[in-house]
Amino acid sequence: QIRPVESGGGSVQAGGSLKLSCTIAGYSGNLACMAWFRQAPGKPREGIASRKLRGITTVSDSVKGRFTISKDTAWNTLDLQMNSLEPADNAIYYCAARGSAITCPLESGPYEYWGQGTQVAVSS
Q: Measured between alpha carbons, how far is residue 1 from residues 25, 27, 28, 83 in Å?
């Protein structure tokens, strides 16, 4: 069974950095899309960044300039480098994947596989 597995969450002060990593357990082929989402308490799940096969990436305007995702690491892994973190970035961060697709949107509906999530806590 395809299962994204997140790591790297934790606590940091505002202005600090964290790197999240996602690997895919249970599958050795190429997935069309991998993406990062986050969900803060009381808010809907928000798409942060996605990567399509061949390295085409999309980053949400809400984090552009502060967050970047990997393009060149081995396929079926996806790192999210988060810099200049703010208290507004407090959330559970989820890795998601799609098996086959033409597009890799920052909407949660199309993604078939989800990790358990990792907590990011930013203190002011």
A: 8, 7, 11, 33
